[in-house]
Amino acid sequence: MSTAMDTESTYSGYSHYSGHSKKAHRQGRDRHKSPRSKDGSRSEKSVTIQTPPAEPLLGNDASRAEEGQDDNWGETTTAITGTSEHSISQEDIARISKDLEDSVGLDCKRYLGLTVAAVLGLLVFLTPIAFILLPQILWRDDLEPCGTVCEGLFISVAFKLLILLIGTWALFFRQPKADLPRVFVFRALLLVLIFLFVFSYWLFYGVRILDSKDTNYQGIVQYAVSLVDALLFIHYLAIVLLELRQLQPMFTVKVVRSTDGESRYYSLGHLSIQRAALVVLENYYRDFTVYNPALLTASKSRAAKHMAGLKVYNVDGPGNNAAGQSRAMIAAAARRRDSSHNELYYEEADHERRVKKRRARLVVAVEEAFTHIKRLQAEEQQKAPGEMMDPREAAQAIFPSMARALQKYLRTTRQQQYHSMESILQHLSFCITNNMTPKAFLERYLNPGPTLQYDRDRWFSKQWTLVSEEAVTSGLQDGVVFVLKCLDFSLVVNVKKIPFIKLSEEFIDPKSHKFVLRLQSETSV
């Protein structure tokens, strides 16, 4: 693995704004993947949820163009030294091929399901029309004349099919939010029910009408109308099973992030485990603060520093047992741990002091920068056309005065990897365009926001794996625990059923609210 060195030099991110800006180089974060565990002792089932590709939340086409030179503007670029050799083993080749097969399988499954649903839907809508047209084509001369009632049934069939088409489009034709590992059971049951229903109608139509060439055309049209009515009832059943059944809250789930312990509570209805996992992930991107691995390195470095300060000397020669050395190191570490809480206290106090100091400097710098711009009215724009700037130019003009304070604050709070210089300029121009205050501009940087607030290329969680001891198509139950894993952390979900609440009533007569003033000799009354 390549090594990285931290160097401090002049800061090139602002060279086109001011002549005395600084440029910094820092160690890039190597994201390492642990090999998959092939331990089969646990009876857990692991499946994968992939979110569909989407456009970036912030239009960062321009930022991608400058990403090569100013991606980590606040602190860094990564300097790679030495030579690196890349090797791949047979296990890696097998794992890569398996991943490709899984991705191909997911795509085939998705398109196969859409194809089957589309063919079945087309068959459903064409069947009533075929029931009405086939007698007119095959034995038109033998049919009885269609009266007023029969012609009125044509209008009924047309409008019912139109209503069914609109309802089907609203319920089923939606852009998928995710690729679930297993099929949706209720949707599959509805497709099977519709197929059996239409097949039985065609079977009856072929035996009793086509073979005998029935001449009662009004009865044939009424038969088609009955089919459309039944399809409307099936559509109502689909609304109940797919939409209404899950609305009533039945379970409370606790979601805990494994790295920092941040947790949230959500109420869910009757859902399968895989659909509950999808709801949890949708709420995670909205409610949880963005995952920042830089905040977790302080405790690890502190523990490593304590252990690095211990030295053990072997005075009895190299043949002495190593178990004694281990016990000596553990005992020495325990004695040093007794005083480590003081170091932790002073480190946190010093960090809070530096954060407050740089936050105050940032607020003052931004407020001063915003005072240098003014929105021109329509009559003022005609007076001084040469001095006007668009929001992008205004943001570029005032950004250098606040850049250093913002850079230091983001370094101190370890947020520099989430904010590129281009994204900050876009946010600043957005605030200037909408006449927002400096406080509104700073809200994004003073308080870490949810994951959706940042660009997708800076997320640490894009593909998830669902691990559950129960089948993912089974419904939620009290005490069920499942885990959503991504590359760097996982979400542990614990399901609890909402208890049955018994509420009683007690009547109080309004006339019973009577009081007496109790006087004592010691009171001033």
From TrEMBL:
Residues 1-86 are annotated as: Disordered. It is found in: Cell membrane. The chain crosses the membrane at residues 111-133, 153-172, 184-204, 224-244. Residues 1-10, 74-86 have a biased composition (Polar residues). Residues 36-45 have a biased composition (Basic and acidic residues). The keyword Signal does not apply. This is VANG1 protein. The gene is Vangl1.
